[in-house]
Amino acid sequence: MLKQTMCFIGAGSMAEAIIAGLLEKQLTVKENISVFNKRDQSRLQKLRQRFGVRCPENKGEAVTSADIVFLAVKPKDVHDAMAQWGPYLKARKHLLVSVVAGMTTSHLETYVEEGVPVVRTMPNTSCTVGQSATGVAPGRWAGEGHRRLVEQLFRSVGTVVTLEEELLDTVTGLAGSGPAYVYYLVEAMEKAGIEAGLRPDIARQLTVQTLHGAAEMLVKTAEEPALLREKITSPGGTTSAGLEVLKSRDFTGVVRDAVFSARNRAKQLSEELTASPVK
Ligand SMILES: NC(=O)C1=CN([C@@H]2O[C@H](COP(=O)(O)OP(=O)(O)OC[C@H]3O[C@@H](n4cnc5c(N)ncnc54)[C@H](O)[C@@H]3O)[C@@H](O)[C@H]2O)C=CC1
Ligand SMILES: O=C(O)[C@@H]1CCC=N1
Question: Which parts of the sequence bind NADP(+) (predicted)?
Fold first, then answer.
């Protein structure tokens, strides 16, 4: 259990997913978490009801008194949020943990006094169920202890890789956005099942369990995905017939393009954010 207090700037999907995971894994207690947003009181009310976290009126005080400050606003709002809350962060007190896609640590550092440790991360919404795949990149003022603390935080809600910051855009394209690709696949499989005669609830049950089972096979057997695929594929059989369609439509190329497109958008966001005026 961590003793540090935490404050979330931003009360959206990511803040909710991380809070859910941290509390579920008992890495902290609800009394140690405060969260605020721009203005949506009903959203805060929902988080307060669901988790029992603090939603203080005095936002500046919430930032000042926290040890770990999570930045969980949309990229378009990051300048305003950092201009507003950055001056409250102090080098000897705070650790700033950003989940903002495309926002570099060096750019975040320009909003806070020299020495404030900043760690950039890219989790995904599976934090909610303790199954995120999170990339972590420490900034110039973040020491070994800060890196370890952030790894511990995100390990409580999934797996963590620490890497050079320039690779975080790739992590974003693959793992940050990744769950959306999987959900899209689920939607497509369900739709096909229904069109081929299954009841919607049965199509849902079969699709979700098929994905769950396949993911667990990958994790528990640690076998190569290609080998697992081959074990299902009898020559001239049904799987082969299905896979032929995916191959003929360049499934691999389509997925590659999706990951690269998301990665490139993250890079573009970085450029746009860096080009914007600071302070
Ligand atoms: N949704 C996802 O799957 C993932 C999102 N991210 C990143 O997480 C960040 C947040 O994304 P979501 O939670 O999806 O966004 P969201 O739109 O659900 O939530 C953003 C929150 O920020 C608040 N906010 C905006 N300006 C503010 C300010 N000046 N002061 C205080 N609060 C302010 C809004 O009121 C809102 O509560 C984004 O930068 C995104 O790139 C990272 C990984 C995955
Ligand atoms: O779409 C987005 O911008 C965010 C970043 C990673 C996942 N969702």
Answer: 9-14, 72-75
Query: Is residue 77 lining ligand 1, measured as CB closer than 6 Å?
Result: yes
User: Angle 129-135-136 (CA atoms, 0-180°, nearest 5)?
Assistant: 115
74 lines ligand 1 (CB under 6 A): yes
The pTM of this model reads 0.95
Residues 156, 187: one domain? no
Residues 6+ apart with CB under 8 A from 241: none
Best mutation site among 74, 78, 98 for ligand 1 pocket (most ligand atoms within 8 Å of CB): 74
Output the domain CATH number for residue 111.
3.40.50.720
11 belongs to an annotated ligand binding site? yes
- Determine whether the annotation assigns residue 10 to a binding site: yes
Q: Does 240 map to a domain?
A: yes
CATH number at residue 191: 1.10.3730.10
Give me the tens of pLDDT residue by residue for the chain, a chain 279 residues long. 999 999 999 999 999 999 999 999 999 999 999 999 999 999 999 999 999 999 999 999 999 999 999 999 999 999 999 999 999 999 999 999 999 999 999 999 999 999 999 999 999 999 999 999 999 999 999 999 999 999 999 999 999 999 999 999 999 999 999 999 999 999 999 999 999 999 999 999 999 999 999 999 999 999 999 999 999 999 999 999 999 999 999 999 999 999 999 999 999 999 999 886 554
Bridge-based pairing of strands 132-138 and 118-122 is antiparallel
Helical residues (DSSP H) of the chain, grouped into ranges: 13-24, 41-51, 59-65, 78-85, 105-109, 144-155, 168-171, 178-195, 200-221, 225-232, 238-248, 251-275
From ligand 1's centre to the CA of 149, what distance in Å?
Answer: 22
| Among 187, 183, 140, 133, CA closest to 162 | 133
